[in-house]
Amino acid sequence: MNRTALVVGSTGIVGHTLSEHLVARGWSVLGLAREPVATPGVTPLAADLRDASAVQRTLKDLRPSHVFYATWSRRPTEAENIAVNGAMMRNLLTALRPDAPRHVALVTGLKHYIGSFDNYAKGPPPPTPFREDLPRLPEPQFYYTLEDELFAAARRHGFGWSVHRPHTMLGFAERNVMNMGTTLAVVATLARETGRPFVFPGSAAQWHGLTDMTDARILAGHLEWAATTPAARNQALNVVNGDVFRWKRMWTRIGDWFGLAPAPFTGEGVPLERQMAAAAPAWRALAARHGLAEPDLAKLASFWHTDADLGRPFECVTDMSKSRELGFREYQTTDKAFFAHFAALRARRLIP
């Protein structure tokens, strides 16, 4: 059976990890991005999804059996997110030949349940655990637009689909700063090297409540499984590591890895954007002292993005029963996922 994957967004956390996973599993992999990064075993394709004619030219002679859509373009408002990201998905699906692919997978996330960037975590606490059969929120959201574009194209062309909803992602990708694992590694490194307190930046609800996360390696396996498992055809599926934790324990575990004693949590965290507002010179000096590969703090960490996750005012727990019942069995403890990510950063000389 032909197994040729088109990974859309191949330079992101999801796309990079998925591409490596599929190559290791014997797939032929095409990696589409605006600026592809060389990855062993992946054929790079360059196109901006906002340019319909460019996408047509790039894909006109290709017949991928499976498409994995793992990209988006952030805009200042949700209305703009809807317009731009909807057009990107539409341009991609229009450029595919009518006789291909067999399956298209879309990666979204828990904003499906929590709210768009405009309304993120601002409404009443959603029912937990999050289940795939919860109704959409009564607001416009670009995740919903992406789904609707996918569903409409599947009806027209007859391919199968799957929608994957991970929680906060853990994984590595070059030039990707919206990455909690790397952001916290930077924060911990600066605390160790400068003596600043390693203090939890989030809300009391996150400190004390249960939550979960998604290792990009788990998501990669989930994407392949759903794309090749008949029972998972035409399903929306949550995907997380499988464990739950409280940040009051995880913060200590992360501190231990870096040799830090966390500062006491007083009941109200100090957001990282405030903590790190003047940290760029300290990071540059640290990078020079240790010979690190990236001295520019802005190219490593995204403090606002991690603040959004850690500052949520309610508990966030994801139900994976649907995938388990359909046969997906992979599992990853989140503390070990953090540690693997930190080790990868150290191996790439991004932290000392």
TrEMBL record:
Domain called PRISE-like Rossmann-fold: residue spans: 66-352
Domain of life: Bacteria
Protein name: SDR family oxidoreductase
Organism, as annotated: Nannocystis punicea
